[in-house]
Model the fold of this input.
Amino acid sequence: MDLITPGSGLIFWQLFGFLGLLFILIKFAWKPMLAALDERETSIENALKAAETARNEMANLKAENEKLLAEARLERDTILKKAHDASAKMIEEAKAEAVKTGAQMIENAKAVIETEKKAALADVKTQVATLTLEVTEKLLRKNLSDDNAQKELVDEFVKDLKLN
Amino acid sequence: MTRKLLVLSLLLSAFMLTFSSKTYAEGSEEDKTSFIMHHVKDSHEWHFATFGHSHVTLPLPVIVYSGDRGLEFFSSSDFQNHETHAFGEEFAHEGYFIDEHDHMGRVDGASFIDLSITKNVVMMFIVMIVMASLALSAANHYKKNGAVAPKGAAALIEPIVIFVRDEIAKNAIGPKYKKFVPYLITLFLFIWFGNLLGLLPGAANMTGNIAVTMVLAVLTFIITNVNGNKDYWKHVFATPGVPIPMLLIIVPVEIIGLFTKPFALMVRLFVAITAGHIVILGFIALAFIFESYSIGIASTLMVTFINIIELLVATIQAYVFTLFSAMYIGGAVAEHAHDDHH
Done:
């Protein structure tokens, strides 16, 4: 058989043998294999994607947590500051109130004392007047009988007065 | 490892020389190298070795079809001298003979078709069986276990499948690659296994036979042109952007180009593999020509070296044939977005 002349038998067998092989392998080997490869590649890709998503979610969650924490901290600080301010203000107010009330009370007490004093003076004046009248009356009554008696009587009355 | 290989080749060369020198040393210069072409070409029998005067051969079926006598079956041993195993017109059997150049002939000169199971056909079947069993057992792995990591035969076949799909089909064909992947994988594996098994001692030069490469090239040609789209044919018969008078030259060139592509495929594989076999056998023949042990040792070292290169060539040629097939198919199915300028 010549080197560069194709032999008829070999062409025949090669053609039908190769086509048969092609048919069998496509049907029973390459199609299932390529399908399995595709399936595996898709599943790997999906798994990678899922992992990526999970990682992103984790990162988001963490960021959110940190944000929440920062917010909470800020809020706490605000609340503390407000409370501090409020208490300071209250103390200030209470002090002012106390001072005011004290002043008021002193004022009132002074007014009462004044009034009482005035009333007491008025009373004393009335008493003095009454006593003077009584003394005068008794003096006048005894005056007629005896001068000594009168004098005694005045002394007595004065003594009485002192004792009172 | 390398040292072991060298020692082994030394021993082998010494072994081969003791046997072969008796057979060939007595003959003429032509006899000493005739085994090269005998190995490279196809044959009606499978000749393995000759020890003195006894031949170790596998007789193969001879199948002949003729219009007047129909389909007939013989054995190649019917057509040869039982002592020397030589074919010749004088050993005609039932009106047919096989001449010294392994050509079939008919005594009465009428026409017939030789459909014999020759050495290369047997080799082809062996390659197909190896390939099919590996591929089917690989596919079985996925059928049994689902889409899991490869094991066993699947671990051997899967990287090749992925390589052909991603590096050859996807790159050379483009978005429509999926349809052609099975053909390209089969093509790659058939050529690769054919090349590799052809390197075994005693094996046939199957992928270095022009009939085999022709059939593969014709299949690529058919697939390319059957799948050719409007752009492809427009490019051939009315090349865009070329003035009408120039078309008279361009169109015939384009039409010739359709056929030169598969022709180049056919010749490239045939030449690369046949040349490799001839070089290896040429180095072996040196020992017989010079009838010297030292030349034999040197040439065996060279044969080992060339064999390693041939392993590379076997893979490269399988890759190149598949890649070019994919590129031709890719050219036929590609959508040209740039219709107006070309």
